[in-house]
């Protein structure tokens, strides 16, 4: 799987990055190598979040779409 990230230079030094496809998924590192390690960990964490399915009787629908 390939995921695009946006890497920024931090004002105080080092780098920080965000993952637009995963809102709220961001991390930082003092070096690019550290940032890459932290990004892998952050993305894995964001993708492993359990989301409770809707309760029966509600108006929600669960759909799967292919893009």
Compact summary:
By secondary structure, the protein is α+β, with helices and mostly antiparallel strands. It has a domain at 6-47. It has 1 helix and 3 strands, in the order βββα.
Task: Walk me through what this model shows.
The chain has one helix spanning 32-47; strands at 6-9, 15-18, 26-29. The protein has 67 residues and is α+β, with helices and mostly antiparallel strands. It has a domain at 6-47. Strands 1-2-3 form a three-stranded antiparallel beta sheet, covered by helices on one side. A hairpin with a 5-residue loop joins strand 1 (6-9) and strand 2. The longest helix is centred in the middle third of the chain and has 16 residues, at 32-47. It starts with 5 loop residues before the first strand and ends in a 20-residue tail after the last helix.
Please, how many helices? 1
Q: What is the topology, as strand order, of the major beta sheet? A: 1-2-3
Percentage of residues in strands: 15-25%
Largest sheet, in brief, is: 3 strands, antiparallel
Question: What is the approximate shape?
Answer: elongated
The whole-number mean of residue pLDDT values reads 88
Low-confidence runs: none
Proportion of helical residues: 10-25%
Specify the structural class: alpha+beta
Total strand count, please? Answer: 3
Q: What is the succession of H and E elements?
A: EEEH
User: What is the radius of gyration computed over CA atoms, rounded to a whole number of angstroms?
Assistant: 16 Å
How many angstroms does the end-to-end distance come to? 14 Å
């Amino acid at each position: 799987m390939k995921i695009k990230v946006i890497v920024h230079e931090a004002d105080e030094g080092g780098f920080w990055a965000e993952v637009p496809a995963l809102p709220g998924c961001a991390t930082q590192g003092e070096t690019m190598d550290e940032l890459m390690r932290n990004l892998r960990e952050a993305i894995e964490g964001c993708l492993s979040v359990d989301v409770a399915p809707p309760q029966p009787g509600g108006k929600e629908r669960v759909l799967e779409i292919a893009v």
